[in-house]
Amino acid sequence: DEWFSRGKKLPEDPGADTVDFPKRTIPAKGYELLFQPEVVRIYISLLKESKTPAILEASAGAIQNLCAGSWTYGRYIRSALRQEKGLSAIADLLIHDSERVVKAASGALRNLAVDLRNKELIGKHAIPNLVKNLPGGQQTPTKNLSEDTVVSILNTINEVIVDNLEAAKKLRETQGIEKLVLINKSGNRSEREVRAAALVLQTVWGYKELRKPLEKEGWKKSDFQVNLSSASRTQGGNSFDDSTL
């Protein structure tokens, strides 16, 4: 409780390219070892080098949890992942054959995107892989991902494109709008998936700069509004929003 109460800081400073971990006067011990810089580097090394799905899932999951919320060390770890080139390693896991690895990577990226510089980089490099995992479109994925994983990916996309026009443009360029509208209107997706897709569509429509290009492509305002009337009401195991924030 002491460690977690230290840290209700302001959002990450967009002008700060690096954030150094606090200097310790005594060695870390107990659970403090879980979030020290040397341990974070081990997580990153495992993400880059391991071929075992369970290890990849666990490493990405550890990062997801450590980066959740606004506690002090979460801020440092979000920055450390960028400095240690860990963002690209996690983004690469989005095309892994294991759905559990994909979901863990998606969750980690969502929490990492709270850092404004991370958000920019994830928008540039991870949006295409996130979109590839969505159902529908001309390039339907061979994997039939579960509702929980699809909702996780949609929530990550929304986190990345909020206050990030360039990421929203990248979403449009990578067939993302087509897939989102299909989820919203197809009638064979769950209510959670429809709500998550609609949230992303509303975020996109909120950018006035994108409305004319979207209208030229044939999209209408109604395409970007929630359409629960045709959505399946069948819920998965959990009906809550997939979030650790």
TrEMBL record:
Where it mainly occurs, coarsely classed, is other
What is one Pfam family matched by this protein?
Answer: Arm
Where found, per UniProt? Cell junction
ARM repeats: from-to residues? 85-122
Per its UniProt record, what Gene3D superfamilies does this chain match?
Leucine-rich Repeat Variant (1.25.10.10)
Keyword Mitochondrion present in the record's keywords: the answer is no
Q: Does the keyword Protein transport apply?
A: no
**Which GO BP terms apply?**
cell-cell adhesion
An example Gene Ontology CC term for this record: adherens junction
Q: Which key words tag this protein in UniProt?
A: Cell adhesion, Cell junction, Repeat
Matches recorded under SUPFAM superfamilies: ARM repeat
Q: Which family does it belong to?
A: Belongs to the beta-catenin family.
Which PANTHER family does the entry link to? CATENIN DELTA-1 (PTHR10372:SF6), PLAKOPHILLIN-RELATED (PTHR10372)
Protein's name in the database: CTND1 protein
- According to its UniProt entry, this protein's organism is Oreotrochilus melanogaster
